[in-house]
Amino acid sequence: xxxxxxxxxxxxxxxxxxxxxxxxxxxxxxxxxxxxxxxxxxxxxxxxxxxxxxxxxxxxxxxxxxxxxxxxxxxxxxxxxxxxxxxxxxxxxxxxxxxxxxxxxxxxxxxxxxxxxxxxxxxxxxxxxxxxxxxxxxxxxxxxxxxxxxxxxxxxxxxxxxxxxxxxxxxxxxxxxxxxxxxxxxxxxxxxxxxxxxxxxxxxxxxxxxxxxxxxxxxxxxxxxxxxxxxxxxxxxxxxxxxxxxxxxxxxxxxxxxxxxxxxxxxxxxxxxxxxxxxxxxxxxxx
Length: 287
Prior knowledge:
By secondary structure, this protein is an alpha/beta fold.
């Protein structure tokens, strides 16, 4: 299958590309920089230069493909405070890809986060619903919902942020009693699910990329504290924003999530280390 992948050189995309190639697919990845293009070429993929704002590029690449996996998101502007702008750019890209595939029966798989709240996250949820609705236009559309933590060696996201906060503050914190839970998945298991969705997911599917259904935040804090040799402490809800910054809202979520239906639907079986075991390997604490 000829597969067009956006976000192909990103944290998840750089695992999805070899997953697809090793399964015999031909991959074309969207690259907005020379570094991304070089990484894709080195991985054995063809390169399509462009960005999420290049509607013509997206349309042509999708039209020429047998299927599309959409992973790109403007994290740079989202983390600078413009989450809504990033979400709107994402929606335009999905609309363009969906239009190119309409009537073809070909697959479109997109990544979407759990736990929409307000603003940008709410807009991303609307994009996920739009994608599911493309099934009515004869697109074999599916949404892969990603948990807060997609972990693995080289991760620079939520787990790395938590470790950095603990190192800076001199304590490894959790909010309240720390019993609230995060679902999690290893990056390589997530990549495998994206391939299975491309190959097998029925039109209009919503899949949960969840290996750990709910890891207590306190358990995460205890591993971090032990590896950094610092105290593990409770942070009150009132002090959470001051201690954790922008991460406080996410860290307070209690969101255990099942992937039982996903495993049954597409035959997904996570085999990589769970979050606690991955933390115990020590690679998050080497810097």
